[in-house]
Design goal:
Blueprint: E1 4-5, H1 18-26, H2 28-36, H3 48-51, E2 65-70, H4 76-87, E3 94-99, H5 102-110, H6 116-119, E4 127-129, E5 136-138, E6 144-149, E7 163-167, H7 175-185, E8 193-198, H8 204-209, E9 215-220, H9 231-241, H10 245-250, E10 270-271, E11 281-287, E12 300-306, E13 318-323, H11 330-344, E14 348-352, H12 359-370, E15 379-382, H13 388-400, E16 404-406, H14 411-419, H15 430-443
The protein binds adenosine-5'-triphosphate and magnesium ion (MG).
């Protein structure tokens, strides 16, 4: 099954707005003269059906989702705001407006030049009531909208919505969580609908959306909106990226497949429901964030283990069992790591000690004691003597050989793996780092790892899928 393309984008149909076509046909002066006869000539700036290009208007039919993916400045946000305006004509509408951060929602989606307040004529404009969770809009007819943000996916729980507008979904910090929560919230009325307006990004969720047969998509290029953008923006910014791969995504709105230079392709991930007791060693690896607090990186916490070699096997296979990564203080990540350790029955922590020196191990030890546990946890401290990419290469090779499986739900890690191209200045992917440490420790030194002391006899056979059968 696959998403359907917006019918207006079939070959041969007009690609310009009604206004552009009228101007091309009879000239601007004639159009202007016609407008001057109308009582409210300013109404034109609010007449979206006349201004919009065909791909910016909602598709016909009974779709659940419409995704407008487009280049920078191609008119995505405006199209989303105009869609909300249409929905709000129904007084019973309860619309979720979801952007990347609370700031983005307020600044762009609500108050920006293409935001809701600008696109609604004064008589139709909602009133805005700010609140800690984002805020609420109320239209003169009683329709309501709620401002939500992808930075706080938990805030999307518990709202009841008839419609939703999601701007820049794949660029959220937690796109999957926000999307899942939104799915539960969209449940009011007879037929829920939502629009996603975004510059594309090849995360797994986007590929999944493109498989939905209740989704219609349209694509907009930055050039299509040229009339409404500054000329020197094209000369300086757009010209620089034209003809490049980045340009295909950022100017033409194309959803690209694999990231060049990325060590993992989306096709290498093998799902298998492996139980910890089918493994001969189980460990939890931690890649701690350098700082904590709002905006800080996540601490990567990944659990997994090694399968016993089958007779005749010349190499080992590995299974990742969980991802407990989080953004939090050292105490919070240490507790989360110990919980994960218990959940999977691990016997070992693997931590990198370069960054915080002894700090990481001692954080785990004190959380261990604070949680009332006896003894001391076993901790393998590893040192990053090689560069990140050099370290990750042999691990990506294990995936290419089909020797690593993931349990379902590890899409956060998988996205980091497929998007990270290891170029200078790129943010460090914490889950990926933790997974690389874990698998290195389990597989190094002649494939049997440095974990000899931890090896036990599994009590359960691994599922056939996990051993390539
Ligand atoms: N069909 C149109 N007619 C007139 N103006 C338009 C049209 N489409 C978009 N615009 C205007 O073009 C400008 C850029 O549009 P918008 O902000 O929606 O682009 P965007 O694709 O969301 O950009 P970004 O990539 O920065 O998020 C805005 O001022 C918007 O009001
Ligand atoms: Mg925008």
């Amino acid at each position: 099954m696959a998403a359907r393309v917006h019918p207006s984008q079939a070959p041969g149909l007009p690609t310009t707005s009604l206004l552009q076509r009228a101007v091309a046909g009879v000239g601007w002066q004639a159009v202007e003269a016609e407008l001057a006869k109308r009582a409210d000539r300013h109404a034109l700036r609010y007449s979206w059906p006349i201004l919009a290009r065909p791909e910016q208007l909602a598709p016909p039919g009974d779709w659940t989702w419409w995704m407008l993916s487009g280049g920078r400045g191609s008119g995505k946000t405006r199209s989303g705001a105009e869609m909300v305006r249409v929905w709000a004509r129904d007084s019973t509408a309860r619309i979720g407006i979801l952007g990347k951060t609370p700031d983005d929602v307020r600044r762009d989606l609500l108050e920006g030049p293409s935001g809701l307040m600008q696109v609604c004529p004064p008589s139709e404009r909602p009133t805005f009531q700010a609140s800690i969770s984002g805020g609420e809009l109320t239209w003169p007819n009683g329709a309501k909208a709620f401002l939500l943000s992808g930075a706080h996916p938990a805030g999307i729980r518990g709202v009841n919505l008839t419609h939703a507008w999601v701007d820049e979904l794949p660029h959220f910090k937690y796109p999957r969580l926000a999307w899942d929560n939104l799915g539960f919230a969209l449940r009011l009325g007879r037929h829920v609908q939502g629009v996603i307006t975004t510059t594309p990004l090849a995360i797994k969720l986007m590929h999944e959306l493109m498989q939905r047969d209740d989704l219609v998509y349209s694509r907009a290029s930055t050039y299509a909106n040229r009339a409404n953008l500054a000329e020197n923006f094209f000369r300086t910014i757009i010209a620089k990226y034209e003809g490049t791969r980045f340009g295909r995504q950022e100017i033409h709105g194309e959803l690209l497949e694999d990231v060049p230079g990325a060590l993992w392709k989306a096709s290498v991930f093998r799902l298998a429901d492996v139980e910890p007791d089918a493994l001969e060693v189980v460990a939890v690896a931690i890649d701690p964030a350098a700082s904590s607090g709002e905006g800080a990186a996540e601490t990567g916490i990944i659990s997994g283990g090694r399968m016993p070699r089958l007779r005749g096997d010349t190499f080992s296979r590995f299974a990742l069992l969980g991802d407990a990564s989080l953004q939090g203080s050292p105490e919070e990540w240490a507790r989360a790591a110990i919980d994960e350790y218990d959940r999977v029955g691990a016997t070992l922590f693997v931590v990198e000690v370069n960054q915080g020196g002894e700090m990481v191990s001692s954080t785990i030890r004190s959380a261990w004691q604070a949680m009332g546990r006896s003894g001391a946890p076993r901790i393998h401290a590893v040192h990053a003597s090689k560069g990140k990419r050099t370290r990750a290469e042999p691990i990506s090779a294990l995936y290419e050989q089909g020797r690593v499986t993931h349990v379902a739900g590890m899409t956060g890690l998988e996205d980091q793996m497929t998007l990270w191209s290891a170029t200078a200045g790129e943010a460090s992917p914490d889950r990926l780092d933790a997974a690389v440490w874990l698998l290195t420790e389990l597989s190094d030194e002649g494939d049997m790892g440095k974990v000899g002391a931890e090896v036990r006899t599994p009590t359960r056979a691994p599922p056939l899928r996990s051993i390539g059968m």
